[in-house]
């Protein structure tokens, strides 16, 4: 099985969790108004938004990955790197929601930054591969 076949399916199924998160956020901000502190609400919104946008980005990424001319193993490496970055960056906001305090870094802050680095590495690798195969 190819990375560009299985990993997009993982991303599509992951979007269902983003839908559930949207429903949960709506419940917490409307029906159970006041359940979240302002910091937790901001962290929830940021994690939810990043997860959705980055998963859609991953679907585009997987359309272009086969065009970069990478070996099968390299496609798997960069595809997993991208999805790990999506999970880390958006998940870091949720970790900060649980552990963070206003105006201070937390393990969630570090996880979000690490996820951004993984995403950047995967995107740069794809860009280089695409340029090399013009």
UniProtKB/TrEMBL annotation:
Keyword Transmembrane assigned: yes
TM region positions: 6-26, 47-64, 76-99, 111-131
Keywords: Membrane, Transmembrane, Transmembrane helix
Superkingdom of this protein's organism: Bacteria
Official protein name in the record: Uncharacterized protein
Organism from which the protein derives: Kitasatospora xanthocidica
Organismal lineage: Bacteria, Bacillati, Actinomycetota, Actinomycetes, Kitasatosporales
């Amino acid at each position: 099985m190819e990375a560009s076949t299985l990993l997009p399916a993982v991303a599509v199924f992951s979007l269902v969790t983003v839908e559930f998160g949207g429903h949960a956020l709506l419940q917490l901000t409307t029906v159970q108004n006041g359940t979240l502190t302002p910091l937790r609400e901001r962290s929830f919104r940021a994690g939810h938004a990043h997860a959705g946008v980055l998963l859609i980005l991953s679907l585009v990424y997987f359309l272009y990955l086969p065009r970069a001319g990478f070996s099968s193993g390299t496609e798997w490496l960069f595809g997993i790197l991208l999805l790990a970055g999506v999970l880390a960056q958006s998940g870091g906001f949720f970790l900060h929601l649980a552990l963070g305090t206003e105006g201070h870094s937390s393990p969630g802050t570090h996880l979000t930054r690490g996820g951004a680095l993984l995403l950047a590495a995967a995107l740069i690798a794809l860009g280089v591969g695409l340029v090399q195969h013009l």
